[in-house]
Amino acid sequence: MRLDDERIEHAVRNTEILRLPKQSIATFGTTNINYYMVTKPVYDETGEESSETVVREGRVIAERPRIVTPYYMTQLEGFSINAKRYFNTLIKNYGENAPGIFYTYRNEPGKLSIVNNEMKSVLERLNIEIEKRGDPLTTIIKGQDELWDVSLMRFIYEITSISMQDNLSQLFSRGLIEVDKAGVPMDARMRIEELFVKMAKGELNPNEVRKELDRWNLFEEYQDRFFRLLKRR
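^ that's the sequence the OP posted. Answer follows.
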């Protein structure tokens, strides 16, 4: 195992999610989760309780979960060669149109503070503040200072695992996991309709609609509608 891998594994093992959000990821909307990442300063290498605590504030934005297929995933940009090989393995084992749930997240880091108090008292204060606000979508994470983003990813994995069953259940109950004759899930058809509505209102660049159609290999099916809207702009 490489040194970097060992450091990442150590950061994951030593991440503690001290306060989970009281709500899971929404099935049919965007979810904004505020976080406090509490760490011991990297410059404090003593084994004793530090008199200073680093507090990072930020927000994780979870986009609406989507039903996708292995074929669709091979069309996305930004994945490594190894990731593409994995998607091709899924196609080989389950077929290119096997539906699965896909989550996308965005991190918006906020304020960083170094508080002149030991961690225990800082955590007590944060919990009191959250309770006063009555905020159901705030989390507190105890992480590793140098690899705090790894600790954040550990939280994202946890909240995804908690939310997945409920998200799948709701999508299934609405028939959105069903795949049509073209190999496209009903959820994807609904998303395409939403993109066309936004394009018609001038809220979305037509290139984004074209890209989504190409990812599903559906441009030929929708091209007349696409060009009609394009002429109106």
